[in-house]
Amino acid sequence: MAPDPPVDVLVVGGGIIGLSVAWQAAASGRSVTVVDPSPGRGASWAAGGMLAPVAEAHFGEEALTGLLIRAALVWPGFARDLEEASGRLVHYRADGALLVAFDPSDRAATDDVLGFQLQLGLAARRLSARECRSSEPLLSPGIRGGAELPGDHQVDNRLVVEALLAACEHAGVAFVSDRAEGVALEGGRVTGVSLAGGGSRAAGAVVIAAGCESGQVTGLKVQPPVRPVKGMTLRLQAPPDAPRLRRTVRALVHGRNCYLVPRDGGGVVVGATVEEKGFDLAVQVGAVSDLLDDARELVPALDEYTLTDTTTGLRPGSPDNAPLVGPTGVAGLIVATGHHRNGILLAPVTADEVVRLLVGNDPSDLFAAFGPERFGPATGDRSAGEPLPGTSRIPG
Ligand SMILES: Cc1cc2nc3c(=O)[nH]c(=O)nc-3n(C[C@H](O)[C@H](O)[C@H](O)COP(=O)(O)OP(=O)(O)OC[C@H]3O[C@@H](n4cnc5c(N)ncnc54)[C@H](O)[C@@H]3O)c2cc1C
Is the pTM of this model over 0.85? Predict the structure, then answer.
């Protein structure tokens, strides 16, 4: 049988990052193939869908916060274009979020975070307990206050993934249901990938967007130092006449992070745990129980809801918690991974950047600080994905 003809762009990994890149590259007139054994079912399926540049602003991550703010501005247009291209809704909601403290020491901790957000000039306003409860009447009477974060929005990440798959199909993207093992190089440029199931695919350019497994693709000069950071979300459904949450609530409950993201139709996503356990995806009883305890303390009305889904996923963590997006020193080979806690938020700006690189531009100012080469060349050492000393590892 004759080998498949080369395509312009081959994307390794069909999560929200790879699919966004594939859709945008195909829409710009390129022939595109995505290689993935289970597209759309990685971290992007597990996520909560918060688009949260303010709540995700952490000490020592100011450059990343700048990127997140810009990424949030792009989302409304991206959601509109995706809905039009796919014929599906993605339920983008710009109704802001509440940050809530459950006990006095949670209040002290959230006040520190709020002070930092205000110092950066981010949109946040301190609220009393009474103001929190009038903004969100389902909150427990025991809460100690919090803050309003009007710039933090949300989208239904599962609808986004389904819409991206449809938009890719409409744009002529081909899918290969296999794992890419390594990249093929010739004369200093990439020529395609080898497949785990045998054979290979030829391409003019290859984009490595395999999430937390991006560092396992062989043959890269700059091996992305990403590691799996396990997280779990629960999905709950309100009974038909039960009261519903109005907006996203992020909370500290006795020192533990917990968030509740309401969906159109009475669903609520509850998250999220953060564990460094390698490639383990087990759903552990203790983790489910802790999350439910915290969520029910915060919003007692959840007792009447139905638990419909528990999903674990592996965030692509990087040493400084920021993405790795850019060229690799091999002509035609681009990396787009390491999006860690914010891959849903960062997908549209990442796709724009990769398409810019595919047409031969230099990295944009926006991504200049987030190139994959910033941690040095490939070492073959998986521990390269460990966090840098002093960087924060805060749940998202
Ligand atoms: C519990 C949880 C909650 C989260 N909440 C949020 C949130 O609210 N907001 C937010 O912005 N972000 C959130 N995130 C982070 C976000 O989900 C990730 O940053 C994002 O999904 C990463 O997208 P990705 O496409 O890089 O990876 P993935 O979605 O994991 O996709 C990677 C794909 O690559 C494929 N693959 C792997 N290896 C190979 C190979 N060798 N060949 C071919 N294919 C391969 C996999 O099958 C997979 O489909 C959350 C993550 C988790 C786990």
Answer: yes
